Hints:
By secondary structure, the chain is an alpha/beta fold. It has two domains: 6-211, no CATH class; 225-317. The protein contains ten helices and six strands, in the order ββαααβββααααβααα. The chain has helices at residues 39-50, 53-58, 76-81, 115-121, 132-150, 154-162, 172-182, 201-211, 224-261, 266-317, and strands at residues 27-28, 31-35, 85-88, 97-99, 102-105, 199-200. α1 packs across α5 and α9 runs antiparallel to α10. It starts with 26 loop residues before the first strand and ends in a 5-residue tail after the last helix. The model has no long low-confidence stretch (mean pLDDT 83).
Amino acid sequence: MAPFSKAHQLVDDLFTANSADPAKHVHLPGHPCVSLQNTRGVEETLNNEFYCQELERMAPHLWIMATSCSSNINPLHRQLVKDREIIITEDPRLHLVWMNNRIFVKPLPRYLCSHEFWERFLDTSQDREDNHMDNVRKAATGFLRTYRYLIRHESDFRIALEKHLVPEDAKWDRFCHFARALQNIEDSATTQRYAYGELRLTRLNLYAPMLLHKFNYEQIHGQYGDIFGRLFGPILFIFALVTTLLNSMQVELTVEQLVDDQIQWEKFWYFCRWFAIISLAATSIITVGFAALWLWMFVDEWVYTLRRRAEKRRVARGIPMY
């Protein structure tokens, strides 16, 4: 059955015939080449639209890369506060994947808001030759639930309308009833990917060679200049650091020769020597400080991740939290 009741559906005219236009709703909304009469074609389309095999393969290890919480999704207004640009994507692999100041969001299809559509095409209680539609249904359910968190305020709803993320004829009052029904969806009713919220693309790319046996999860930069441009900052920092250290050591060696050759430059020798030593010490402290800060952030993330994972295991076993 659908994750929402017929009374709470957002779209109620998906299969309604129109006397002025008898051909209305003959095809799957958004897919003019997929007939609603072709059940197998609709199921294949739904599989491509919502089920992401790559992310499901990575799902058992996503706790390493992201917060293990399905509600870890910032509402749309918060995305703008974080200076993130909302990029429309039709690829389920990229839904709620973010990088730098961009986050990819897949629009909510009109047909997924229809109770009758769920009953006709996503009802897995019917006898089938295979169970692949069970995974598609869970993926669609998990995808649908993400809009419960993306749109929490009327301002979020207005942003969604502006970005064409929800059906254009949707109303705020009806969406409130629709979203209220989605809050009862548990993680067990979704695929493993939707036990997590937003995912960071840099981490997916980092672990893709190990988990997917491919160079990256998604290549955003297609030009060589963009790829090497990202390396320019770290390389410049390392170059400046090494240059400062070498120059400081060279000054120290030079002033040692100066005191033997020209004793009248004694005060200048002391100044150069201590300036070189202070520069060496300051550069070393800054380097160690950056390394310590990175290590602290790395350890803090792992502690938080392991704590969250332990809490979820306790809840799954019925152990009370104190």
